[in-house]
Amino acid sequence: METFFKGIKEKINEAVKMNFLTIRKKLGEEKPYAIAFVTDSDFTTLLLWVNTYEFLERADAEYAEDGDDYTTKWNPDEWGYLDESSQLAEISDELFDKKTSIIDHIRSQSDNLSYAKLGDLIEDSGYPRLFLETVTSVFQELIQSNIFGFNHEEITYFITMNDDKRAIEIENNSAKTLNSDKVYEEFLKRKTYY
User: Fold this and answer.
1) How does 79-90 read in b/e, with b if 16+ C-beta sit within 10 Å?
2) Measured between alpha carbons, how far is 11 from 20 in angstroms, rounded to an integer?
3) Taking a C-beta distance cutoff of 8 angstroms, is the pair 128, 156 a contact?
4) What is the rounded CA–CA span in Å between residue 141 and residue 122?
5) Could you please report the per-residue DSSP string of 127-193?
6) Is 75:8 a contact under the CB 8 Å cutoff?
7) What is the CA radius of gyration of the chain?
8) Which of 41, 76, 67, 35 is nearest to 166 (CA)?
């Protein structure tokens, strides 16, 4: 499994290096404040989202018009700029295939597994841990090589899960690793909706 994720790491790195310029062009003169890798509860999808203060202001204004005090600031599903490259889609397909093969193997070893037991066995396989370690590691490398081209003290980097209660833990753990102490401490003050 380590070999699989080593290959995935290299592919993520290349995909972001190749495609982030497209996002930079879309940003124009807008000032970004956050970049996040987003996955799902199965750890089979991987998207890169960026948001700017200007897009945040426009999005939140739409909610305010309806009398809602909701802010989209830390919810990448509501952000403005996404890497929709075919490379990240292909990586997501590989992740899905790998996870499916793990599930098939587990089911071939045991009959009538409960959903909870299947989840425990997937966790025991190391897949979720290796996924998060891989994405965190490649994110660190991209930040350190300044591929994004932003001042590290003005951007918050994190990983999130868009459909699971584990999102806050994943966000906090990744933000601690990827950002300065100052940026991380500020991120911990965010309003969450999970």
Assistant:
1) bbbbbebebbee
2) 14
3) no
4) 27
5) HHHHHHHHHHHHHHHHHHTTSS-S-TTT-EEEEEETTSTTHHHHHHHHHHHHS-HHHHHHHTT----
6) no
7) 18
8) 41
Give the whole-angstrom CA distance, residue 136 versus residue 12.
11
How far apart, in Å, do the first and last CA atoms of the chain sit?
31
Looking up tokens 């509860």 gives 41
Per-residue CA distances from 193 to 65, 69, 114 (Å): 20, 12, 30
Among 92, 87, 96, CA closest to 13: 87
Quick one: pLDDT at residue 194? 63
Cα dist from 12 to 112, 142, 146, 151, whole Å: 36, 10, 15, 22
Residues of the chain with pLDDT below 50 are: none
Q: Specify the residue for token string 């005090």.
A: 69
Nearest to 192 by CA among 154, 169, 178, 181: 169
Residues in the chain: 194
Q: Which of 23, 28, 25, 34 is nearest to 56 (CA)?
A: 34
Q: What is the pLDDT of residues 142-157, one digit of tens each?
A: 999 999 999 999 999 9
